[in-house]
Amino acid sequence: MALLPELQFRSLSTRLAVLYAGLFAGVLFAVSALFSISVQEIARVQVARQLVASGAVYDRLWQQRTRQMQDAAQLLARDFGFREASATGDSATAASALANLKGRLNANLAVVISADGRVIGIEQPALRRDIARLWDALDSGQMSGVAAIGGRTRQVAAAPIMAPTLTGWIVFASDIDARELRGLEKLSAIPLHAGVIVSAGPGRWRDAADGSLLAGDVAAPVADSLDKHEAFNASIGGTASIGFAKSLPAMVAGDRAALLLSYSRAEALAAYRPVQWAMGLIALLGLIVVIVATWRTARRITEPLERLDEAAERLAEGDYRQLAVEGRDELARLASGFNRMAREIEEREQRITHLAFNDVLTGLANRSMFHRHVDLLLERSGSGDLLALLCLDLDHFKTVNDTMGHGVGDQLLVALAARLRETARDCFVARLGGDEFVVVQPLVAGRLSVDRLAQELIKAVARPIELEGQQITPSTSIGISFSPDDGIDAATLLRNADLALYRAKADGRGTYSFFEESLNARAQERRQVESDLRLAIVRGEFELHFQPLFDLEKGLIGSFEALIRWNHPTRGLVSPLDFIPVAEDTGMIVPIGAWVMREACHQAASWPDHVRVAVNVSSVQFHRSGLSETILGALAASGLAPHRLEVEITESIFLEGSEATLKLLHSLRSLGIRIALDDFGTGYSSLSYLQSFPFDKLKIDRSFIQALLTRPGASAVVRAITDLARALGMETTAEGVEETAQLAELYAHGCSSVQGFLLSKPIAAGEVAALFSEPGSFGATIERSARTA
User: Fold this and answer.
1) DSSP of 193-240, one letter per residue?
2) What's the rounded Cα separation, in Å, for the pair 263 and 111?
3) Is 225 in contact with 218 (CB distance < 8 Å)?
4) Pairing mode, if any, of strands 674-680 and 697-700?
5) Burial letters for 324-349: b for 16+ Cβ neighbours within 10 Å, e otherwise?
6) Letter string b/e over residues 159-179, b meaning 16 or more CB atoms within 10 A of that residue's CB
7) How far from 386 is each of 380, 382, 440, CA to CA, in Å?
8) I need a surface site. Which of 391, 654, 688, 734 has the fewest CB within 10 A?
9) What pLDDT shows up at residue 29?
């Protein structure tokens, strides 16, 4: 391989300093961040302590003011003249004394609340109502606190009037004004802000000074601080602050008041800013040093890595040139590994390319190569008969795999591929998969050459071959399509050749067939039937008809055979012959058969107890799991007794069956379900089936009944079947009885029961009940046949 320019790689061990520098920068930033957080926490704790101390100072000022007003009130309450005036109702004298003392106390309000709730000393109705609310607290013995009076938050102190019994209370109230709060701020060692807040409802607080509501993100921390007596962080007045709330006693039940102290976080941290800036500057300088050192070192390391990256990009584009490397350090070993990877990728690409377009088993071109080859031929050519496509499929190849093993099947495919390559020497031969091959023949000698090639291919495949001591005589069917008449691309030509191949299979195999447009029309019709079937299951378009089976000995209806009909929305009633094969091929027979079983059992449950129902079960249903559960579920849902259900099967179940099939049949029969063999006599091994399983009934195929009066020997065959069934303890049913002479002959042969148009066509489920009410005509027909016999 060609070599790229030589690279000199240096050891990574000499650059560990970069790693350490990076770690140092990380540690430095972590320490700086931790220091900053610690500084903030220390400042917060110190401020919180100062706020708590300021709260205690305010508490002492509050108590001092309260005692001052209470002492004055008690002094006045003990004055004989004031007590006499209060007792005699001399409001003027009492009001004069209150006004005199209010002025000396610098109080805003001074009143007397009598024991009966009257307010003396103030005339404003609003103030009288607010003061009257204090009666409950005074009556309970609370002599001080905070109360809302006249729209303001006031500090209240009171003393009882005894003359000698309680006649009322002297009450003084002072506004909690800004002057007192500013005095508290001056007493603090830090420039805090003090204010009083009062409750404005659940979870809401307002400022006592201006009545404004506190923000929602402040109200919650305030309530938490009141409960835990701790400081909190919040935005108070639009400033990030450290706050502390202390409860104040309230005079009226339900009211809450608190002292709110706050201190700006920015001011609290101002003293620590220089230290924080210094730490940040140190961290920044350390980062710059680390960046410069890392950049210079990285230049030396990344240069060879960039070369490796360029080589990797060229490798992705299919350029497998390698690097020339000197040294034995880490990067040199990396480059050596890259060179080794490039060689392996090149070899792998060659193998993948071969596998992508060639069949592993036979060495022929595969499906991908076939499509590329045909499309290329069609692209290069003009109009006219360009080529013929012969699609081959081995006949009964599955039997070879099943009976002789897949190893022998593979050997057969290899041998036949060699024969095809030899026979179609001048043509393109490919294996599409499984046992399907295709031959592409250019139409140089006209279409007659295609016939000759098809015949030669069939003869070449049909030559006997010995594999592992056993002789095999294979055969193949061929479908042929032409371009451009049958398609102008590989996919269309192959699809149409497949349709012709199916036609060759249907014509008896071992032959070839040309594509016709009618084949495509039938294929499209089949696809339409398949699509409509899927919709029919969902829409419930199926219905059951029932054809009676008449007991010749008793002259009565012994059972009904359930026959499915498809009520197509546009085509009307569709015969089972038109859709059952499609349902079996696609697997849709399983849900359809399950519905038939459920519906038949449901209908039969309403019939007389001696009448059975017969349901045909496809071999596909037997080979899928769940058939036993379907039958038992239908019996359980309908309540039908098992002995009244008869399952009809064909010999195809045994052709593709196994021990599991016999086990399932025995399990059904052990439950009392009857098993009938339908179309008896048409298969090659019908008698062998009678040794495999003890059937309850044999149904004689209608072909024997139709020939009963016209073909010599048909009568003997029917008699032989009835005698054999009688000897084995089985019943017999003749299908397709349409003439009285046929009925008489069957009666004479001892047939157990008959069904056919002579006695009744299949009828809808709703018409079955009428047959039970008028059985006489059937009995008369059977009686006449008996006399004829």
Assistant:
1) EEEEEEE-STT-EEETTT-PBPPHHHHHHHHHHHHHT--EEEEETTEE
2) 38
3) no
4) parallel
5) ebeeeeebbeebeebbeebeeeeeee
6) bbbeeeeebbbbbbbbbbbee
7) 10, 8, 10
8) 688
9) 66
pLDDT digits (tens, 9 = 90+) for 92-128: 777 777 777 777 777 778 888 877 778 877 777 877 8
Q: Name every residue whose Cβ is closer than 8 Å to that of residue 349 and which is 6 or more positions away in sequence.
A: 318
CA distances from residue 686 to 369, 659, 681, 692, 693 in whole angstroms, order as listed: 47, 18, 6, 10, 11
The distance in angstroms from the start CA to the end CA of the chain is: 99
Indicate the SS3 state at residue 163. Answer: coil
Question: Which two structure tokens, joined as six digits, stand for 512?
Answer: 């070839």
More confident residue, 507 or 723: 723
For residues 697 and 293, the model is more confident at: 697
Based on DSSP, count helices (H) and strands (E) in the chain, helices before strands: 28, 29
Is 485:383 a contact under the CB 8 Å cutoff?
A: no
CB atoms within 10 A of CB 282: 13
pLDDT grade, residue 354 (50/70/90)? low
* Residues 131, 118: Cα–Cα separation, whole Å: 10
More confident position, 284 or 432: 432
How do the residues of the chain divide into helix, strand and coil, expressed in percent and rounded to 5?
55, 20, 25
Residue with the two structure tokens 């007003």 = 69
Asked which of 40-44, 80-84, 410-414, 507-511 is least confident by mean pLDDT, the reply is: 40-44
Is residue 367 classed as helix, strand or coil in its secondary structure? helix
Per-residue burial over 29-40, b = 16 or more CB atoms within 10 Å of its CB, e = otherwise = beebeebbeebb
The pTM (predicted TM-score) of the whole model is: 0.47
Tokens matching residue 198:
């009062």
Cα 548 to Cα 208, 381, 647: the distances in Å are: 99, 65, 15
Q: Which residues are bridge partners to 646 per DSSP?
A: 614, 674
Q: How much is the average pLDDT of 641-647? A: 95
- Nearest CA to 193 among 232, 243, 152, 227? 243
Q: What letter does residue 646 receive in the DSSP assignment?
A: E
Q: 612-628: per-residue pLDDT in tens?
A: 999 999 888 888 888 99
- In this structure, are residues 342 and 23 in contact, taking their beta carbons and an 8 Å threshold? no
Instruction: Say how many C-beta atoms besides its own lie within 10 A of residue 591's C-beta.
Output: 13
> DSSP string of 37-80?
HHHHHHHHHHHHHHHHHHHHHHHHHHHHHHHHHHHHHHHHHH-H
Nearest in space to 605 (alpha carbons), one of 409, 431, 765: 765
Q: What is the mean pLDDT of the chain?
A: 79
Closest CA to 120 of 156, 169, 75, 80: 169
Asked if 498 contacts 509 with a C-beta cutoff of 8 angstroms, the reply is: no
- The pLDDT value recorded for residue 762 is 92
Tell me the C-alpha to C-alpha distance, in Å, between residue 90 and each of 82, 96, 97, 171, 377: 9, 10, 11, 17, 130
Mean pLDDT of 406-428: 91
